[in-house]
Amino acid sequence: MKMMRVPLAGALALGRALALAPARSSSLRAPARAFASRMPEVEDAGLKWSTGTGAPLECRAAVAFGVDDLRTTDVVVAAPKAGEVRLRVVANALCHTDIYTLEGSDPEGLFPSILGHEAGAIVESVGEGVTSVKVGDKVIPCYTPQCREADCIFCASPKTNLCPKIRGTQGRGVMPDGTTRFKTADGAPVAHFMGCSTFAEYTVVSEISCAKIDDSADLAKVCMLGCGVATGWGAAWKTANMEADASVAVFGCGAVGLAVIQAAKIRGARRIFAVDTNPDKFDIATEFGATDCVNPLELDGPVAAHLVGLTQWGVDYTFDCTGNTEVMRAALECAHRGWGVSVVIGVAAAGHEIATRPFQLVTGRTWKGTAFGGFKSRDEVPELVDRVLAGDLPIDAYITHNFDGVDNTHAAIDALHGGDCLRAVVSY
């Protein structure tokens, strides 16, 4: 079959501030799992390019070959199979989860793999049976799929967005048929990541992972709705379902934390605490809606006790956006006695567990977790995009750094490590 050559187009250290356990240690990193040694060769779908179903093509991608070993190279991207969509990635926003996996902290981390999961793309070709998107559509690939099948109790329930349809294969770095659509130029298979793999100029995803959005959307902006910003909004509006006039504490003022703050302000919260050890983040947190800024390093005692003291009985809704398990505990323990809700958003490193005294729960506090903010991806991401286009949800301020070309993925990662970066967007 003819091959086409396509033109080139962490957690915060609050634990120490709380006199608690240290941050992640390299000894707790998940062992790198070899992908190539146990995977079959990439298979082609045998479909014609002219029909919009594609042929294998070659493009540039940032491939994670091992822990902290990210290299930009040529990869071959197979045609989409039945129920699959091949996308031309237009813009990719870097998320700390990508870095977390690259650093070896993800228990499901596989190498080699193509990371990236927060992107805007255009449908390049579709596999057999795909009906919800067509060639040329703008989409946001979503790591939380939505199958919408009649027998899926998760899709049918308003209580969750955790459709398990492709969870088993997605966690193994392959497509639903058990194979990968990526290989290196010399033929070695490369794993998928979170069902997205957007650190590449082209990628293949399941149809049920594609949220079709308005054609007028700027993909370099709305790409952020594939993870971080949407996650923060949903954590406040759906998972916590906070009411107006509530008090809120947000631990960690990165992009996700700021999205929680923004959502709380929109919902009408009366008091919003921004908690971070980096005081340089407080100006932007205030712009997003924080009414009080707290630096645990400047306190004489634990931050939880400080917040309880400021509010008499605690904060109505608290959110951990750091991934530090001791911060998760502090967020719970400053929640309001009797009805306080604490939402875990940050992803902890492999081997870490959360703990608290049962008394904290017996006295009315609730500990909750959220993935993608509880949003049902294919139904609700398009609605979020519409609200952005209508001016109801400003997002421009999240983008602090812009880069061109997949070869600048390293530079974007370096920027993300800086304290002044919220979201770095790489346009392909």
* Average residue-wise pLDDT: 89
CATH class of the largest domain: Alpha Beta
Beta content comes to 15-25%
CATH topology of the largest domain: Quinone Oxidoreductase, Chain A, domain 1
Q: Which secondary-structure class do the elements indicate?
A: alpha/beta
Shape: globular
Give me some keywords for this one.
single chain; Quinone Oxidoreductase, Chain A, domain 1; Rossmann fold; seven-stranded mixed β-sheet; six-stranded mixed β-sheet; 13 helices; disordered N terminus
Structure commentary:
With 428 residues, this protein is an alpha/beta fold. It has two domains: 226 residues, Quinone Oxidoreductase, Chain A, domain 1; 130 residues, NAD(P)-binding Rossmann-like Domain (Rossmann fold). Helices cover 23% and strands 23% of the residues. The protein is built from 13 helices and 21 strands. The strands form four sheets. Strands 5, 8, 9, 12, 13, 20 and 21 form a seven-stranded mixed sheet that branches. Strands 1, 3, 4, 7, 10 and 11 form a six-stranded mixed sheet that branches. A six-stranded parallel sheet has the order 16-15-14-17-18-19, with helices on both faces.
